[in-house]
Amino acid sequence: MKDIKLNLRIIYSAIIISVFCFQLHAQDSPSGEESAAIASSYNLTLQHTTLVVSNFEASREFYTKILGLKDLNADWLPENQMFISLGNNLELHVGEVPGVEIKPSTFNHFAISTNDLDAYLKHLNSHGVIHSSLGGGEKKYIQKRPDGVSQTFIQDPDGYWIEINDAN
């Protein structure tokens, strides 16, 4: 119960601080159009994201052997870290980092697209990876998004959620 109260206090404090900061900087913040113009003028795009994992070898096996993603062999990285290609200059940085707490949520996720969702899910199932709704409520669940894309979710060895969809 103490942990719940402490977490609620932390969340409440974060909300209060966020609202205060938003109000404080609202006049200085660029509009949506201005933000888009800034991102466009500097050609800002997502290039990579990082996942801290508890067991590098298990994660390497999962992401390269089971998911079939390519290890970019970034030998300049510290031991037990790697970059994985997600295609189109998008990368996933995976690694063990001592002292960093691994705490996946039931909602945060990233997505991987395939041109053959059914076949890819059969491949994943053959390796013991079960797809479900986000958060794991319904097993073998596939849903249609409003844009017509089919999606489902899997988890990596640390419990991070990965959306698998047929958007490409």
TrEMBL record:
Keywords linked to the UniProt accession: Metal-binding
- What InterPro entries does the record tag this protein with? Fosfomycin_Res_Enzymes (IPR051332), Glyas_Bleomycin-R_OHBP_Dase (IPR029068), Glyas_Fos-R_dOase_dom (IPR004360), Glyoxalase_1_CS (IPR018146), VOC_core (IPR037523)
The segment(s) forming the VOC domain are: 45-167
A single Pfam family, by name?
Answer: Glyoxalase
Q: PROSITE patterns attached here?
A: GLYOXALASE_I_1 (PS00934), VOC (PS51819)
In its keyword annotation, does this UniProt entry include Translocase? no
GO terms assigned for molecular function: lactoylglutathione lyase activity; metal ion binding
Q: State the superkingdom.
A: Bacteria
The identity of this protein, by name, is: VOC family protein
| The species this protein was found in | Lentiprolixibacter aurantiacus
